[in-house]
Amino acid sequence: xxxxxxxxxxxxxxxxxxxxxxxxxxxxxxxxxxxxxxxxxxxxxxxxxxxxxxxxxxxxxxxxxxxxxxxxxxxxxxxxxxxxxxxxxxxxxxxxxxxxxxxxxxxxxxxxxxxxxxxxxxxxxxxxxxxxxxxxxxxxxxxxx
Length: 145
Known about the structure:
The chain has a 4-stranded antiparallel sheet, covered by helices on one side. Strands 5-6-7 form a 3-stranded antiparallel sheet. The protein folds into 2 domains: 7-13 and 69-130, no CATH class; 15-65. It is an alpha+beta fold. The two termini are 30 Å apart. Helix content is 39%, strand content 26%.
């Protein structure tokens, strides 16, 4: 069995991750509202809880805005992200249309949400993520003159 052929895939901010964070933030607002209505909460305690809820939303928004973007590339023997060698992606979550992967290399790590539709080579990227590197690299497509 041959390893996966070379592939390049653009990585951008993932709308799915933003939607999940927004849903969780909205659920938190609902929980706060239900708690405030159904119990005699001291105003200072409620204010502190709302502050924590707002800070969590702000942190999630900043995290999404600062999410890494660039090009994830598999050469057939090495992974690179933004042109810098990276370790093999470790899949944390696979939802078929979205992959949450962790890149660890060079003493640093990054979490990337990969989303179908950001590039044309989604199936090739999935094959490369799940394949193991081999010493024998299959040839890539040859351009015709």
